[in-house]
Amino acid sequence: MSNDPPSAEKPVTILPESECWQLLSRVPLGRLVTSADGHPEIFPVNFVVQDRTILFRTAEGTKLVSSAINNNVLFEADDHDATEGWSVIVKGVARSVHTDDDIDRAEHAQLLPWTATVKDHYVRVLPRQVTGRRFRFGPEPGREFTVV
Q: For residue 69, what pLDDT is reported?
């Protein structure tokens, strides 16, 4: 599929992986999807892109435990304006950051918590697959709506 911008004739385009990473690096908030006790869980997280990985901080709790026990995760971020939007999904493996070198590298990302809580743990999502789409907003073709 072409990587041309969306148009009225083609309202959805598939993004190349390089553009997906560029878009991810421009937004500060995404969603981590994992599983806890056999049930899907979704968590909003502020994050940074570092070396084509997703890095976020967390405190002790469900997010940390579920990403450690069932480390196959999804991460999604998106953005939009008045005319178009995009969504990027990263399928990957979550790994707690443990080694001194990796902790030092994570701390250099200057990823600060958004809430006034202690978040001592860094988690890195190592990507297995990165996909993205750009959407051109507009009316549904062939349907007219009247306002009553």
A: 67
Residue type, 95: R
User: What is the 8-class DSSP label of residue 5?
Assistant: P
The β-bridge partners of 52 are: none
> What is the structure's pLDDT at 98?
87
pTM of this prediction exceeds 0.90: no
List, in order, residues 6 or more apart from 128 with CB less than 8 Å away. 91, 92, 93
Confidence of residue 12 (pLDDT cuts 50, 70, 90): very high
3-class DSSP state for residue 19?
A: helix
CA distance 111 to 132: 24
Chain centroid to CA 25: how far?
Answer: 10
Phi, psi of 74 (to 5 degrees): -115, 145
